[in-house]
Design brief:
Layout (H helix, E strand, L loop, with lengths): L30 H11 L2 H11 L1 H13 L11 H18 L7 H5 L7 H14 L2 H7 L8 E6 L2 E6 H20 L1 H4 L1
Antiparallel strand pairs: 1-2
């Protein structure tokens, strides 16, 4: 049955049930349309990051894709809300699978001076998981950046500041550096 609204149901989704793409008696929707609609309405970068954080198999297969969304020379997401979603997805993925994306340190460092406080905060969250001695001192000036941000972490929203996230990242980096350079860690 053809519909004048292009197949959208009353919930803003596609398909007959509002729970998926191309379900029921409606024709399948192209992958490009799924991406366009999903990004604008469903937080697809965030959903991808959460899914990868929860599945080692998926993270290994698609983790590099999430990183490519924040790199200007790759699959960069120019639209600021999408880019923020991609930064969140990468930072969330790094909380559980940092070993898969150690090369994300440099791209994340490029966001710590971004004019948008949320971008700085998300970069810091990710750097807490992958930052090395090379980035440790570059984060110190951010400890005085009191810009407020609201993040979704640990399954709840929290109000915090860029400075708090900078301190958190530096503490995490320091603990990794201390563990890898301590005499007991090496012998």
């Amino acid at each position: 049955m053809a519909r004048r609204d292009g197949g959208r149901d009353c919930h803003g989704g596609l398909g007959g049930t509002g729970t998926g793409i191309g379900q029921g008696d409606h024709p399948p929707v192209s992958l490009a349309a799924q991406r366009r609609i999903g990004r604008d309405r469903l937080g697809i970068p965030e959903a991808l990051g959460e899914s990868l954080a929860r599945s080692a198999l998926l993270a290994k297969e698609y983790g590099r894709l999430v990183l490519s969304f924040i790199k200007e020379d790759e699959n960069y997401l120019e639209h600021p809300p999408l880019l923020a979603g991609a930064l969140w997805a990468l930072a969330r993925l790094l909380q559980t699978r940092a070993d898969l994306l150690k090369e994300s340190e440099a791209p994340l460092l490029s966001y710590v001076r971004h004019p948008n406080a949320l971008f700085r905060a998300l970069a810091l969250w990710g750097l807490g998981a992958v930052g090395t001695a090379a980035s440790f001192s570059r984060l110190e000036p951010l400890e005085t950046d009191n810009a407020p941000v609201r993040l979704y972490r640990n399954e709840s929203f929290e109000n915090t500041t860029v400075s708090e996230l900078a301190r958190e990242a530096r503490t995490a980096i320091r603990s990794r550096i201390d563990l890898t350079t301590s005499p007991t860690a090496n012998g």
